[in-house]
Records
---
Amino acid sequence: MAKYDKKSVKEGKSSQKLKKEGFNYSQDSKKPIKRQKKELRKEINSAKVVEVISNLIGEDVIDLVIELITQDEYSEFKLAEKLNQDVNMTRNMLYRLLEHNFVYFSRRKDKRKGWYIYYWTFNPNDIEKKRIHILEKQLLELQSRLNNDFHHDIFFICNNKCEKYDFDFAAEHEFKCQECGELLQQYDNSRHKQELVEKIDSLKQEMIELRN
């Protein structure tokens, strides 16, 4: 299964197949309407779908999501066959997506075999809302890091960059890294603080755009 690292997601390089498949949905219904292939819907970016679902559920479901985006009412047996995996594993992935409202299903009785078959459809409605929730958590983490570093322009760090230490802690431990034992060197923290500020501003701007 393909890996989806943060850099790839950020650059919009999630999957060539996912990029080529578009989708749309009605604002008045949770059920997606006819897919618009060759043109992604403006409101939801495919890379964001990958990032949100990877963050909340895990990268192992991304290939399944890609298949669901290409077709509504996808039989779980056909999905398992397409992904070359056991149907129970496929169902487990689908149930995990269902817990976050990323899919919905219908069931129909097979006239020949007599049992019910479940058909699954991808639901993009909550992608933006969940993306905002992820951004809010990231924003809090960055602000916490910035507040922690606010009163310190100078830190000490080893060549392996294991951990940053303030002067008092570094001096107390004879300027030796507590992780690897290497000698600590002075580190100018002002550039790092500026990078945090820029990341925070970028997240805030993205949240404003998503909410408008």
---
Amino acid sequence: MDMPNCCQASPRTLKRGLFSTAVELSRTDYAYVGVGGGAYEADLSYSYVGQGGGSFEKEQRTEYTNWRLRPCTWSLVGVLFIALGVLALGGVANFGGHGEEGPCGDEDCMCGFAQGWTKEKQLWCCHHKGMGCTPDGSVNPLPGIGKLASTLQGCSTQCLFKGISADCAARVKYAAQHRFVDDADRCESAYTLVNSQCSFCETCPLASIGCNDPPVHTGA
């Protein structure tokens, strides 16, 4: 004997989540569990006859259909795509090759050095920042500007100024211990002076110099 396995549907309810909405549909199913094993008996409809008195047991299920993203979710997705687009465009701009300054700027001598500069930028940076000067000495910094005499190495970067080559840290220490010896802020004053002469010494943080350390004396 085939036993019916029917269900009854309840009214649909719209449920809202954080990012989407869906239609909630609850269904009541009756599953055959054997004579005397359930609480309901099948007729034209199911009637409660008491636990152990029927052949069916009641089961209730909830289903969600017609999923749709909420407007706020679409807005969030749009913002995400815009952000990705901006990042992608930024990467393309920073990729620029030789002769293409991109976001560096014509007078930003700390940017684009490895990729190569235009002749105009090289001339300006040599005159005003002491960077990118020709090895043959045909182009030199303006008076009062130190010349980059090594690769950029932080506090060990060499600056050639008034015929003397010394690294950035040594220049700051010397100025603090001699020119600004009576200045309460001698280290800050010395650091400002050296950076005005050798602007690339900005790659050497003052905190890394040990400006207040006592001078080291050598000799017999």
---
Amino acid sequence: MTDRDADGMRVRRAVLGDAHVDRATAAADAFTTDFQHFITRNVWGDVWGRPGLDRHTRSMVTVAVLTALRAEAELELHLRAALRNGVTTDEIKEVLLHVAAYAGVPASNSAFALASRVLREEGALPAGGPAPDDESARHDGDAAASG
């Protein structure tokens, strides 16, 4: 393991948590091992390890980009990471609203539903209110217009 690999693994574990990284590396096989090395070295070591932005800011940028890309599986992981990096629920809400203006309401609408579920699971939002899979929670504007 090179210094870049070790640095990347330290950052990856700090941001995503040991449990996730252990699962991802244990699941690597002959087909995916090179990809695991690539993301550890390049994404976590070279990009997340740069001094220009703190992890809090990087998390907000990552949540915004993943929302715009509609990469919901990765977004779920990075919402949890954002909380770990000190991003508040209000900051997550503002990021998702901002994305709606520039990347589209459908992308943010899906992200709000996912974020509501994840933030409740992580204890960052109180339980209650409509369940994230409730159609009215995802399309509250539509529900208000029809009701």
